[in-house]
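G., before I forget:
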Amino acid sequence: MVDTLYGWIVAAPAIPNDVGGKYVAGAYIVFVVLLLIYVGIMARKLAGIERGLREVAEVAEQRKADAGETEHAEVKS
Amino acid sequence: MTPSRTAFAAILGKDLRAELRTLQSLPAMALFAVTSFVIFRFGLNRTSLSGSLAAGVLWATLLFAAVLGINRLFVAEREEGGFDAIRLAPIDRSVLFTAKVAALIIYLVALEIIAVPIFAVFFLNSAAALPPLILVLLLADIGLASAGTLISSMAVNSRARDLLVPLVLLPLVVPLMIAATAATEPLMLLGGVTYHRFGTWLMVLGLYDLIFALLGYAVFDFLLED
Amino acid sequence: MGVDPSMYGKGLRPLSIATPVAFAITLSLVFFYAPIEADQGFLQKIFYLHVPLAITSLCGFIVGGIFAILHLRRDDPRYDAYSYVSIHISVIYACGALITGSIWAKGSWGHWWVWNEPTLVSFLIVFLLYATYYPFRYAIEDRQRQARYASVFAVTAGAFVPLNFLAVRMSASLVHPRVFATAEGGLPGSMMLTFLCSIASMALLWTTLVKFELSAKSAHGQLKRLRRALDAPTGPPTSRIAPEVH
């Protein structure tokens, strides 16, 4: 039976098949997946914050550049 | 500061008089209950009920009718600006809670005076279950009124107030229902009235009443703060 | 406002190290140390996942209720945020507990759901109640009122939890054997150790996630503050229910 690849899989599964192994695996997989979904959602939020910060930084820099120009113009005139 | 008893009586009287004048909710609740009985008759395909089935149909119907009627107490009040008048009055806010609970208990009792005998006529073989049932009904009413007043006084200030009370109140009264049906079921067995664990379940009901009445009384101040 | 701006992220670093370490230890114990249980066999290993999830979730709800009481008494909006996030993470944990409980029931009883197991049923009812927390908050428009009412809800629901467990437990028919009868006979020492480690890991993870979420909210709040200060265009509309943290 262990000659073929299929034979190996049947004879030596990754987890014990006949004693509820797949249920245990399923439960732990569910836990991990829930955790990863949460991480994914938080990652999206973080990306949004990062985008917002970038926008605000641009606005602030623009403001600073304008103020610099106005000063420059005032000094000139 | 107006003494609490006077304020209590005044608010309670106002609510009851208002309901009596317009007769909005009570007939509607009663009609809903009776129609539900008919629906259960056909839905379950039974012409007589006993034991757990009888208890379940009775309590589910009473609960749904109560949940439908509970909103009326507060919705009308808010729309007529009654809340503002009470907020300005120099009374302890918790008195408002007690008065509302009392009014709701009276409504529920009135509903049950109509609906329960009709239930007995429709489905039960004898009326022997009714006298002990009165005790269960009273205790359940107190709990239902406390939880109902608490939730509906918050829901009334929200957008989806018709949906919110059933949504939040139903899980909240599950322990009440468990105790009420468990106490009622032995009363309605085919063989006759029995009192299996009757006292225990009445105590659970009492515990529920105590916790929610105290909770509501303690917390009601925060609900009317603006 | 005098609030230390790094307040939320402060404990996060040690927590985020401790949590995976705790889990590594726990999982090793579960699969290499804890003995196979006589009755249920390998399936019983779910116990180390399901029960700590459930216990942490319930404690989280109680913590949410405590923060709600603090919010009502001190009128400090930060406590509303703590309460909201505590309940939020606990609801997620409750989902996990229900799903793993269902898997365990399927494995040992053949059905995806059993009404015989009073703790699972009680848990379902508690979950259903706390699930209404979100539409409840959403329905109240005024922010301050929303926070106050949400706190009342959290306190009420917190008082409800023990009452609910009592009632469901009492209603359980003594004829039907309990599905998750592991704790009946008292756990042997090795299982108890593993169980305690698992609870500790779940609790650490819970605390990490709560701090993480609060930190993210705080960052978002600071961004809004920055936008306002610079008169920059406002960003995308924020959630109507999640309390803002500044």
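The CA atoms of residues 25 and 78 of chain B lie 16 Å apart. Chain B has a mean pLDDT of 84.

More on Monday.
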